[in-house]
User: Fold this.
Amino acid sequence: EPEVTQTPSHQVTQMGQEVILRCVPISNHLYFYWYRQILGQKVEFLVSFYNNEISEKSEIFDDQFSVERPDGSNFTLKIRSTKLEDSAMYFCASSDRVASVISPLHFGNGTRLTVT
Amino acid sequence: AQRVTQPEKLLSVFKGAPVELKCNYSYSGSPELFWYVQYSRQRLQLLLRHISRESIKGFTADLNKGETSFHLKKPFAQEEDSAMYYCALSTGGGADGLTFGKGTHLIIQP
Assistant:
């Protein structure tokens, strides 16, 4: 069964550094998402992406964040200048549309980001 | 803004006992509700959605609009049901994101 893959599984970075988290969604999916989960807290929506543009974003997704689909397969999340509070598990997800209904989200395994 | 509440952080039951994981939501429109499960060291995966009205791994959930609830139930718990369970809400249409509850850690004791 096809899966969403994320790399790296764990990323350690220093405060103020830029970091790029990478995701390969399921190949025929059209909708892409990033979520994050701070340790001990709930999964939070960051952004959704469709047709090469952001569809929706949360309050968390400020100017420090950006997303890109640089080619036909990758979907990246960039944090421009990381802060300690950006430390979290970041999940990528993708979904498809079947007869005008968006299918459930398929999640990757996540990237654990640690900002020191 | 919509909200999903899972009041139990941890729920421990014995194998063979019934399980009910509570989920309440607040949203003024007609939401779509989901249950996602995360087994140890595995990714989040869809367990069921209310529009499917199906039973997965013996679990069922009924959307009660009057009580704004979407509780997850299973009549006889099995050890392999031990996992984190997340209730999630979609406001529907377009590529909107899911709003998750905080999750309930279900432990099935032998």
In short: Chain B touches chain A through 19 residues (CB under 8 Å). The mean pLDDT of chain B is 90.
